[in-house]
Amino acid sequence: VYKRQPFQIDGNFGCTAGIVEMLMQSHDGFIYLLPALPAQWKEGSVNGIIARGGFELDLSWKNGKVSRLVVKSRNGGNCRLRSLNPLAGKGLRTAKGENPNKLYAIPEILQPIINKEAKLNKVELKKTYLYDLETKAGEEYIFLGK
Question: What is the reported pTM?
Fold first, then answer.
């Protein structure tokens, strides 16, 4: 008698969501490309991942850095990108100020309470590049990593 195994939806979707978060995150006011790429994944690609704001991404990388990015805009509006390496392409400009795209509004974060006796490790953030791209619905934009 064949017994059907239960479908573990939380595990199946949870794993997929975790992998996508390693390749692209779209909160905090921008789309962060390859924010947590495993060191073993030196090169690769992913197609059709959707970021907040209706931006579909096809992303390729070599040596752990973005080599090619295609942004397909479903809704139009400003697309703010953060990358660990410089990007080049038509329409890309250095970001300034807050992201005008309302779908990327950043919630107010209250100042944390820190015990005076706590010994905290120094946090050093990697250098990143922040760009704005004004998009039109249905248009596609191609960028290359430097």
Answer: 0.84
